[in-house]
Write a structure and sequence with these properties.
Number of domains: 1
Number of strands: 4
Strand content: 5-15%
Strand order of the largest sheet: 1-2-4-3
Order of helices and strands: HEHEEEHHHHHHH
Helix content: 55-70%
Structural class: alpha+beta
C-alpha cells in the first residue's frame, strides 16, 4: 500500500513539473507558446526516460570503470546480495565525496561514486554507500529522480528564455516572466524534494539490509555530510536529488537550506540505528 501511494505521489509530482512547463510556455507566447511547451514537455519526458542516465553521468564528468578497478568487485558482491543485475560502474573526478545511481530500470542502471568518496571512506563505508544506491535501483527510484531532474532543468531553461526576451511584452508579461524565472526553478526543486525525501529513508533502510551492517552507511553519511559542507561540487543543482547527500553547488547556502532534497542527517542516522545487522556482504558469492 505504501508503494502504491509513493508511486501515485510521484506521478502527481511529475505531472506538476510538466504543468509548470506548460504554464511557462503559455506566458512566453500564448497559444503558440503553449503548443511549444507541450512538445517540450513530451520531449523531456521521452528524452528523460531514455537518456537521463547519460545526462546525469555527463554532468558529473563520470568515466566508466571495468573489473580491474577496486570499486567493481564491491559492486559485484553487493548485487549478489541484492539479487540485481550488474550495473555499469562509474567514477567521477569530483573531490567532494558523493555517489548516485541512475538509469531507467535495474537492467539499464549505473552507479557512480566520486573520487573524493573513494579517497575518504574505507571499504566497508563504500559498501554502505553503494548499498544505498543499489536500494534505489531495487525500488526503481532512479528513473523518477532522473526524469524529474531533466524536467526541472527544462523549467530553468524556460526561465532563461523569459530573461532574454521570450515573453509577450506587448501584453505586459514582463512581471509574469520575472516571476516564472524566479519561482519556476524553486518550484521544481520543491517538487524534487517531495519525490526525494521519503525515498532516501527507504533507500537507507534497504541499503542497510543489502550490506548487512547499518553502521557502515551511518558512518559514511556522517563523513560525506561534513565534507560536503566545505568542499564544493561542480554539478547542476537540478541533479541534487540523485545524490546520496546534498552537494554544495552554485545555490547560495541560505537559499539551498530552504530547498533541501534530502532529509536531515540526524533523522537519517536515527533511522539507520533502528535497522538490524544481517551479516557481512563479503559472505555473498
Amino acid at each position: 500500500m505504501n508503494q502504491f501511494y509513493n508511486n501515485l505521489k510521484t506521478v502527481m509530482l511529475l505531472g506538476l513539473l510538466s504543468g509548470l512547463i506548460l504554464a511557462g510556455g503559455a506566458m512566453i507566447g500564448g497559444q503558440q507558446g503553449l503548443t511549444f511547451a507541450l512538445i517540450l514537455a513530451a520531449g523531456m519526458n521521452f528524452f528523460g526516460y531514455f537518456f537521463s542516465d547519460q545526462i546525469a553521468l555527463a554532468s558529473a564528468g563520470a568515466q566508466e570503470v571495468g573489473a580491474n578497478h577496486p570499486l567493481y568487485p564491491i559492486v559485484q558482491r553487493l548485487v549478489g546480495r541484492a539479487g540485481l543485475p550488474m550495473p555499469r560502474v562509474y567514477v567521477s573526478p569530483q573531490a567532494a565525496p558523493n555517489a548516485f545511481a541512475t538509469g531507467r530500470n535495474p537492467r539499464h542502471a549505473a552507479v557512480c561514486t566520486t573520487q573524493g568518496l573513494l579517497d575518504m571512506l574505507d571499504e566497508n563505508e563504500i559498501a554502505g554507500v553503494l548499498s544505498h544506491e543499489l536500494a534505489h535501483v531495487q525500488h526503481r527510484d532512479i528513473l523518477i529522480t532522473s526524469v524529474a531532474a531533466t524536467i526541472a532543468g527544462a523549467i530553468s531553461y524556460l526561465g532563461y528564455m523569459f530573461m532574454w526576451g521570450g515573453g509577450n511584452r506587448e501584453e505586459g508579461s514582463g512581471l509574469e516572466a520575472l516571476l516564472f524565472l524566479l519561482l519556476g526553478p524553486l518550484a521544481a526543486l520543491l517538487i524534487q524534494a517531495g519525490i526525494s525525501r521519503s525515498r532516501e529513508f527507504n533507500a537507507d533502510s534497504g541499503g542497510a539490509a543489502i550490506c548487512g551492517n547499518p553502521m557502515w552507511l551511518a558512518t559514511a553519511l556522517e563523513k560525506i555530510h561534513y565534507a560536503n559542507a566545505r568542499i564544493p561540487m561542480d554539478t547542476n543543482p537540478a541533479f541534487n536529488a540523485t545524490y546520496i547527500a546534498e552537494p554544495r553547488n552554485a545555490i547560495g547556502a541560505n537559499i539551498a537550506s530552504l530547498f533541501q532534497t534530502h532529509p536531515p542527517l540526524d533523522a537519517r542516522l536515527v533511522n539507520l540505528i533502528g535497522q538490524p545487522s544481517t551479516g557481512q556482504f563479503r559472505n555473498a558469492a
